[in-house]
Write a structure and sequence with these properties.
Length: 340
Amino acid sequence: MNSNRIIRFFKIRWVLLLLPVLLLNACYYKRHNPEDVEHNYVLVVHGGAGYADPEKMGEEGARLYQEAMKSALAAGEAVLRDSGSALDAVEVAIRILEDHPSFNAGKGAVFTAQGTNELDASIMEGKDHKAGAVAGVRRIKNPISAARMVMESSPHVMLSGAGADVFAMELGLEIVDTTYFFTQDSWDSYLRQREKASEGEGKHGTVGAVALDKHGNLAAGTSTGGMMMKKWGRIGDSPVIGAGTWADNASCAVSCTGHGEYFIRYAAAHEVAVRMEHRKWTLERAAHYVIDDLLGKQEVNGGLIAVDKYGNIAMPFNTRSMFRAYIKEGEEPQAFIFKK
Ligand code: ASP
């Protein structure tokens, strides 16, 4: 071999050796800079896990619930289609469910043992772990927006009670009289429950949303009236970051519904993300593990909705019903109540 050929041989070898390194670098860059890649958006909502009776609900009743969830999806999808953020989509979708009298959040909130309404909500962004929450609020029409304001316009993560109400009022959110949250259905159900259940044992429900936007960002939000017949001042999992709500671009966004005390004790929403990130489980496996095994085996009732950074979704529940619906870019919206 003359010297020129030797030099050429080594040059080619270097290029061949460097190629995989360059490719790996490109993959790493894409993974850690998801905003550079266009994602197919996904939005999932829930209206609570529980024991809805298909007979009592009837086909017409079921259709009304499904339509309500689909209108929440439509509002959120409009945001995502225009390249808006997962956070905005989650907030608008939840506001629609909060305004609907049939879900246990906002307008349709259940009653405490004292016959009052105390609302909880939280929201989280997956990009930078920003989060906000309100708990035990009594006069904010849309607690999910107050949670977002805590996140964006205060140095805190959670505000509670009268302080949170005043904070929301000062920032211009719609404030209502406490009688706004009265619905005949909810009150009748409270009176029935008061006869048979003791304090802290009532039925529940909640609304929530999770989304992946075109930029690859995840967000989650949850809003609730809590458990019917709850003690005055009781705070559930819904406003607790890591328990009822979690979002992390590295794994998934989660919104939970169910017996809040247990979802707090097992950091349920966070547990889904942790199993994906550290054990490399799929979203489906991690979400079912939390609902079916971790909580289900102790007879804790509930469910969750989740979307991962690839747009996969999971909606496990261990109750008879869970109001749930989703839309994926380019597909028709789907809504369900009972097991398929
Ligand atoms: N998790 C809510 C709470 O405990 C209730 C529910 O989702 O059903 O306040």
